[in-house]
Amino acid sequence: MKRSNIRIIGVPEQQEEEQGLENLFEEIISENFPEVGKKKVTQAQRVPKKMNPQRPTPRHIILTMANVQDKERILKAARERWKVTYKGSPIRLSNDFSTETHLTRKQWMEIYKVMQSKGLNPRILYPARLSLKIEGEIRRFTDKKRLREFISTKPAMQERLKGLV
Questions:
Q1: Residue 50: CA atoms inside 13 Å, Cβ hemisphere, count?
Q2: Where does the L1 transposable element dsRBD-like domain lie (predicted)?
Q3: For the chain, which terminus, N or C, has the lower number of CB atoms within 10 Å?
Q4: Measured between alpha carbons, how far is residue 157 from residues 61, 96, 164 in Å?
């Protein structure tokens, strides 16, 4: 399901108190993407506070756009521009995944980390697929069952990933 949410990462928390999140987004758009024009935001909020002393970054902002096409235009412009700033400091604009997609991607992380430590160079693709380059061929797996079936045909992979899948 396509969602019309954008996640903004890296905006200091004091900024919202001064002008509100909707106005802050309009300022970011006018500063970085004047060609996109003014887009309507229906809802804006900071994610809930989960303090982690190891990572003192500001909370993300989630914006709900009026429609999906506006979100896609803004994200496309952000990808083309490469560097998006707010008052001179770099920020990131990204897609806000659904909860289901986030949980599915999280399930791949244990396998991803083990494969990365073994030098297999895995990737997690959108929305939640694992990709591996094996014997010069790129393989994509949508779930653990398919990965398990593939590994069962490769004895060398079975030994490297013993007990993981």
A1: 3
A2: 100-162
A3: N
A4: 41, 34, 11
> Of the residues 80, 96, 112, which one is the last residue of a structural domain?
96
C-alpha closest to that of 76 among 107, 40, 36, 46: 36
- Say which residues have a Cβ less than 8 Å from residue 42's Cβ, sequence separation at least 6: 64, 65, 66
β-strand pairing of 123-125 with 137-141: unpaired
pLDDT in tens, 65-83: 777 777 788 788 788 878 8
Q: Count the Cβ atoms, other than its own, within 10 Å of residue 106.
A: 11
- Same domain? For 11 and 90 the reply is yes
* pTM summary value: 0.53
| Residue pLDDT, tens place only, 95-117 | 776 666 777 778 888 888 888 88
The total of structural domains in the chain comes to: 2
Q: CA Rg, the chain, in Å?
A: 20
Helices 144-152, 99-117: crossing angle, 10 deg rounding: 30
What distance in Å separates the CA atoms of residue 15 and residue 5, rounded to the nearest whole number? 20
